[in-house]
């Protein structure tokens, strides 16, 4: 990492770019990515040998995030009003759709996990939604919902990125501009500022 040398060059699918990616847990030998095409193709590559470990169509709904579950056997994708839990087996990936129960499916923006407990309790999957809620998943079923705040979870991410960029003096003007723009957008939403 300190030398910034290229370790490996990975070929995905011809004429396609990856829209989101991550490494597998454990040994980190797989590069998992969602391709930017109509089918949102999910691709698992052995990045050191550049061999395809699995490929599958992800579906028509846009995929916004991918993450490898601590279980090491499960890959989680989420996006426009869906979440899927994938198992990789012998070159194929098998999805299980997440169940929102009686609730309305939401657009999920990001994925994280709790730690596994010593008593064998499997890690929970956490997703941040566009409506400001954090969804907690046990296996592929929604366990509970926490209302985090009134805006998208993405706003929290932007604030974190802004603070990180602000540590570099050259980034301060960009942070101030973004912060003012977000503030004005919130004021317009509450009809404090009127446009003519």
Keywords for this structure?
196 residues, alpha+beta, four-stranded antiparallel β-sheet, 2 helices, globular
What does this structure look like?
This protein is an alpha+beta fold. It has helices spanning 153-166, 172-189, and strands at 18-23, 30-35, 42-46, 51-56, 63-68, 74-79, 82-89, 92-97, 108-113, 125-129, 133-138, 141-147. It is built from two helices and twelve strands; from the N terminus they run E-E-E-E-E-E-E-E-E-E-E-E-H-H. The strands form three sheets. It has a four-stranded antiparallel beta sheet, with no helix packed on it. Strand 2 (30-35) and strand 3 form a beta hairpin. The longest helix has 18 residues, at 172-189. The model has no long low-confidence stretch (mean pLDDT 79).
Q: What summary fits the major beta sheet?
A: 4 strands, antiparallel
Helix content: 10-25%
Compute the number of helices.
2
The rounded distance between the terminal residues' Cα atoms is: 52 Å
Structure in a nutshell:
The protein is an alpha+beta fold and 196 residues long. Helices cover 16% and strands 37% of the residues.
Which SSEs are present, and which pair or pack?
Blueprint (H helix, E strand, L loop, with lengths): L17 E6 L6 E6 L6 E5 L4 E6 L6 E6 L5 E6 L2 E8 L2 E6 L10 E6 L11 E5 L3 E6 L2 E7 L5 H14 L5 H18 L7
Antiparallel strand pairs: 1-2, 2-3, 3-4, 5-6, 6-7, 7-8, 9-10, 10-11, 11-12
